[in-house]
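Any chance you'd type out a single protein's sequence alongside its tokenized fold?
>
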Amino acid sequence: MRRTPEEICLLCQTEKATKTNSHIVPKFMSKGILGNEGPRQGFTISTGEPEKKPEKGQDTSKESYILCLGCEDYLQVLETYIAEHLHKRILNPKFNSDFTYDVNPGNVHYAVCNNLNLLITRLFFMSIYWRCSITSVSPFTNFEIDEAELLREILVTHKTQNLQELLDAPEDQYSNNIPLVVLRSMKGEDQTSNFLYATKSNDGTYVLTLNEYITFFAPEETTATKRFDFLTNRGNNPFVIIAAQDQLWSSFKQMIIDLWRDLTLKTAKEKGVEPWLGKNDPNRR
């Protein structure tokens, strides 16, 4: 059901949700999904309608009347900070001093974000998970987070349109203890295999694939977050990003695609329909 401007903002739950065309995934993270050359077409994949082909789109997912103007401005403060201090810098040699690069014993490259505000960074990623869980637009229609209300409460607690207030705010010890893993492709936007996808794994970990980012979130430690060991962001240490080189990035993307395929085939079986991907899928189970 489409929302109207008379309905209440889903974040603050006090003001009217008059904002139109709110991006579900921040534009700076998702614009590469459309490609830089030729028609601006990308793909979104979902498990909810397995009989349908992945959708081509001319823009990334947006929805009207889910936020009030104040909450939209608040989320924009978070987005602008991360766009300027993380997204535009992590692949730019001019900002090498902002990151300490290292390799763990398993040969996984990672970057310690020396100057990134921990509270803002956590709020930013939580806001994306929350938006993906409450939206009614594809490809997130069937993505639900059991702890969506917890995320909403954390976000509302720190709501402000003033960046300096967030920079000066004390750390949120509760949200700091929620495991969060972030991978970033170190070759930048891959114009040949971009996609957006959200799912929940069998161990309760929520996974978002956001073009050149893959993130893992769980309200408490899971098998997946434990596997990342100290590369899981938890506590007051500087934020860590897994700097995924080609082989690691490809393996994670394939893992997501395999998970999507399995869930799509499962949904198709439950609905009694012929899955689009199953018709020519040699790995169909």
About this structure: The chain has eight helices and eleven strands. Residues 49-280 form one domain. The CA atoms of residues 230 and 240 lie 9 Å apart.
